[in-house]
Fold this protein.
Amino acid sequence: KNEVEQSPQNLTAQEGEFITINCSYSVGISALHWLQQHPGGGIVSLFMLSSGKKKHGRLIATINIQEKHSSLHITASHPRDSAVYICAPRGSNYQLIWGAGTKLIIKP
Amino acid sequence: DAMVIQNPRYQVTQFGKPVTLSCSQTLNHNVMYWYQQKSSQAPKLLFHYYDKDFNNEADTPDNFQSRRPNTSFCFLDIRSPGLGDAAMYLCATSRTDRGNAEAFFGQGTRLTVV
C-alpha cells in the first residue's frame, strides 16, 4: 500500500465547477504540501499546512491530522487551473513523500 | 524573481559522459533536495541536505552524487549517465527552523542522454 493515496487520479470538469482533490496518508508527518505542476515541469507550492485550513484566492486546503487526510478545493474553476496537483506530506526526516498526483482538466 | 534557480534548463549529454546540474537559492534555506522525475511519474527523491548533513535515499544509484559547497548552492553529479537517466531533475529548498516552512522548487533541468 502506498504511503500517500490521492483521489481522483484524473478529473475533467467544466469551467466554474467546484473541485475537490483528496489525499490520505499513512505515515507520521510534520507538515503537508499541496503542489501544482504544469506541463513542462515547473512545480509551485500552493500550500504548506500542519493543521486546520488555509485559503489563497480560489484555493482552499484543509487537513485533519487525526484522520490523516487532507483536501484541496478549487472554487469557480478556470481552464488555467488545469495542471497536476500533488499531495506531498513531509516526513520526520524533512523528506517530501509524493502522492501520484491528480491530473485536472478544466474545459471552457 | 526566481528564488530557486536551476541551470541549465535543458542539458544534452552523451552516454557515459559525466554531467553536472546546478541549483542555487536566494532564500537561505537550510534544506535542499534533488528529485528525479520521469515522464508521467511522481518525482523521486534522490538525496537531500539538512544543513551540511547529506542524506542519501537507499535506492539512489551510486552513479548519482551531490555536493553542497555552501548554503546557496547544490550540485547533482551524474558520473556515467545512461539512457535510463534521462529525466527531469528538480531541486527544491525548505527551511526547518521555522516549523511550517514551505518548499520552493526550481524550474527543473531536463536531461537528455544520447
In short: The interface with chain A takes residues 31, 33, 37, 42-45, 48, 50, 55, 57, 88, 90, 92, 94, 96, 99-105, 107-108, 110 of chain B (CB under 8 Å). Chain B has a mean pLDDT of 90.
